[in-house]
Design goal:
Blueprint: E1 4-6, E2 13-15, E3 22-24, E4 27-29, E5 36-39, E6 48-50, E7 53-55, E8 62-65, E9 77-79, E10 82-84, E11 91-94, E12 100-102, E13 105-107, E14 112-117, E15 123-125, E16 128-130, E17 134-139, E18 145-147, E19 150-152, E20 156-161, E21 173-175, E22 178-180, E23 185-189, E24 197-199, E25 202-204, E26 208-212, E27 227-228, E28 246-247, E29 255-256
InterPro entries: Beta_helix, NosD_dom, Para_beta_helix_rpt-2, PbH1, Pectin_lyas_fold, Pectin_lyase_fold/virulence
Protein name: Periplasmic copper-binding protein NosD beta helix domain-containing protein
């Protein structure tokens, strides 16, 4: 607590074995590799990284590295941090499931705000993620929930990706997020990324609000879809749901059947 960890040749903080630790209210900056590295040599679980300023590290601000297919197993709580100006990603997670990423401010990292590879059953909630290449980059990740985040002025708000024909990213829930002014896509779903659910989000002023190359992704929950700033339909009966569907490009099967309607300018619904 309350340390300044800076200008180390390698990492600011390295944890290779240990659980139930708390790293809080530190300034971790200008380190030669990562700001904080959790590296699996033994069991690592139930650690907290909170209320730190993590900036200007050469590679990753925070790295959870379960290399060689060994998990850094779960219930790490990464919350309330400011993560900025890191040389690659703000947060990188590899083979580390069952984590909580909440209420962080993540901006102006050279690549991705949060990059998760082979990470299942995690919750990403309440983060403000701006001015990165990808706000979140998901690579072969299943059963995660992304909710109540702001993705603004990134190139991609969220990119969901699959690395090979044997893999997929599936059964993720994306709900109650704001995608605002991202310069390429608000949300991009790659091929073989299937059975994801996307509903009650606001897509506002992204160059392309969403693009779905996958199959069987749901863009509504059966009664409510998403708010789209480029929706051109009407709401004649004034029930708050557009009277025509919103076709998610590329046109050919991805449909929001219940697009949320808002009169007037591009103001997101309550």
């Amino acid at each position: 607590t309350n340390n300044t960890v800076s200008n180390n040749n390698n990492h600011g903080i390295l944890l290779q074995e240990g659980s139930n630790n708390t790293f809080t209210k530190n300034r971790i900056q200008n380190n030669g590799v990562h700001g904080i590295l959790f590296e699996r040599l033994s069991n690592i679980f139930n650690n907290t990284i909170s209320e730190n300023i993590i900036s200007n590290n050469n590679d990753y601000g925070i790295c959870l590295d379960g290399y060689n297919g060994l998990d850094i197993r779960g219930n790490h709580n990464i919350s309330g941090n400011i993560i900025k100006f890191n040389g690659i990603h703000g947060i990188y997670s590899f083979y580390s499931p069952y984590n909580f990423f909440s209420n962080n401010t993540i901006f102006s990292n050279n690549n991705d705000g949060i990059h998760i590879q082979y990470g299942d059953n995690s919750i990403i909630s309440g983060n403000n993620i701006t001015d990165n290449i990808n706000g979140i980059y998901y690579d072969r990740c299943d059963y995660n929930t992304i909710t109540k985040n702001i993705f603004k002025n990134n190139e991609y708000g969220i990119k969901i990706y699959c690395g090979s024909t044997q893999d997929s990213s599936k059964n993720n829930i994306i709900t109650e997020n704001n995608f605002i002014g991202n310069t390429l896509y608000g949300l991009l779903i790659d091929t073989r990324c299937n059975y994801n659910s996307i509903y009650i989000n606001n897509f506002i002023g992204n160059t392309i609000n969403a693009y779905d190359y996958g199959n069987n992704n749901d863009w509504d929950n059966g009664s409510l879809g998403n708010y789209w700033s480029d929706y051109s339909g009407d709401d004649a009966n004034d029930d708050g749901i557009g009277d025509s569907v919103y076709d998610v490009p590329p046109i050919g099967g991805s449909v929001d059947n219940y697009p949320i309607w808002e009169d007037g300018d591009d103001i997101p619904p309550n």
